[in-house]
Write a structure and sequence with these properties.
180 residues, alpha/beta, Rossmann fold, globular, EC 3.1.3.-
Length: 180
């Protein structure tokens, strides 16, 4: 079994005139909700073996807020980032579920848990695609709303990433930080 954490980046500023969507940065509220998710991940002992992060500025900043909270020891953040494989990928910028599935199928089999920091609608659609069906999924907020900094946690009923396919997962929870 594999574990998958799907995180939509935190709230970002609107693109300013003359700047690109890709360069948008987090708002103060976005930093706050990213910190809430970071501590939630830590408190639930949700610790990925690997992180795949869109290289859009808002996704990178979201991961930068989260990384220190996942640090297991009183040690430097730099050591955590060195010990945890983090890849910043342009291919995750506004990626489709199909693109992300193809990417995950190439992961090393030693990776048992993966965090993807990405964008909507792809992250939400990927969670729905992998979650399969059933009452728990149908009632999940995943179908209604997946705001910035929403987190979907899935167990994948696979032993190899190459076996990843639609419906192979079980949605454990959707966590949405306080929007206040």
């Amino acid at each position: 079994m594999k574990r998958l954490y799907l995180l939509r980046h935190a709230e970002a500023r609107p693109a300013s005139r003359g700047s690109s969507d890709f360069a948008r940065t987090l708002t103060d509220r976005g930093r706050k909700t990213a910190a809430l998710v970071a501590y939630y991940l830590r408190d639930q002992d949700y610790r990925p073996d690997m992180v795949l992060c869109s290289n859009a500025k808002r996704a990178e900043e979201t991961w930068a807020v989260i990384a220190p909270a996942l640090q297991p020891y009183e040690d430097s953040v730099e050591r955590l980032i060195e010990s945890l494989e983090v890849q910043y990928l342009k291919s995750l910028y506004l990626a489709t579920p199909e693109t992300m599935i193809m990417l995950m199928r190439t992961l090393p089999e030693t990776t048992n848990s993966l965090l993807i920091v990405g964008h909507n609608p792809g992250i939400q659609s990927l969670a729905i695609t992998l979650a399969g069906s059933g009452e728990a999924v149908a009632d999940a907020p995943l179908y209604r709303d997946f705001p910035p900094t929403a987190l979907a946690v899935l167990n994948l009923e696979i032993t190899t990433w190459a076996a990843l396919e639609e419906g192979c997962g079980r949605l454990l929870e959707v966590a949405i930080p306080d929007r206040g």
